[in-house]
Amino acid sequence: MACFRTCSRLLGLSLGMMALLAAGTNMVLLFPNWDFHYLLRGLVGRHAMLGSGLWGGGLLMLTSLLSSGLALFGALVCFITSGVALKDGPFCMFDVSSFNQTQAWKYGYPFKDLQHRNYLYDHSLWNSVCLEPANAVVWHVSFFSVLLCISLLQMLLVGIYFINSLLGLFCSLCEAR
């Protein structure tokens, strides 16, 4: 029985630390290049603004003591959002002149509709497409990759936590006889 309690404590501590890390990582995504002006001007991508690391990987994960299902849902939402964010690419200012033959810049997701190239593997695109914020692709890929890994690990630990809780329940029922 002590084994199940020890495992629960270790899992709870691990999940709590990762929840804080996920929330902090999502907060960093709101301030590209540590500059708060992008957030104030509404120039932060929708994946970061969704805040799945804050509420999904953070707040809901911390409530895992109340409901493992809710924690699993939060981690899953954070995982899916991070994966979609990595697929779509960063929200940045880019040159749209290649589309309409006039020099014009706009904010958007320039990598979202690339037909034959994947920006994650073509590092030559990383500094040539996004004009602002500086290093937008590196920032985006780095922090959403961290959120993706954290949420995957959280799902695994919540699953172990759930199984450990069930085993603890059934073993305690057997010992009571």
In short:
This protein has 177 residues and is mainly alpha-helical. Helix content is 64%, strand content 6%.
What this model shows, in words?
Keywords: Membrane, Transmembrane. This is Transmembrane 4 L6 family member 19. The structure is a single chain. 64% of the residues lie in helices and 6% in strands. The protein is mainly α. It has one domain. A 3-stranded antiparallel beta sheet has the order 2-1-3, with no helix packed on it. α1 (2-29) runs antiparallel to α4, α1 (2-29) runs antiparallel to α7 and α5 packs antiparallel against α7. The longest helix is centred in the C-terminal third of the chain and has 41 residues, at 136-176. The protein is elongated.
Write the layout of secondary structure elements.
Layout: H1 2-29, H2 37-40, H3 46-50, H4 52-62, H5 68-88, E1 92-95, H6 97-100, E2 105-108, E3 130-132, H7 136-176
Antiparallel strand pairs: 1-2, 1-3
Going across the biggest sheet, name each strand in turn. Answer: 2-1-3
Share of β-strand residues: 5-15%
- The number of helical segments is 7
Tell me roughly what share of residues is in helical segments. 55-70%
| Separation of the first and last Cα atoms | 14 Å
Structural class assignment: mainly alpha
- Taken in chain order, the helices and strands follow as HHHHHEHEEH
Mean pLDDT, all residues: 83
The number of domains? 1
Main sheet makeup = 3 strands, antiparallel
What shape does the CA trace take?
elongated
Number of strands: 3
Low-pLDDT regions: none
The rounded Rg comes to: 20 Å
Keywords: Membrane, Transmembrane
Protein name: Transmembrane 4 L6 family member 19
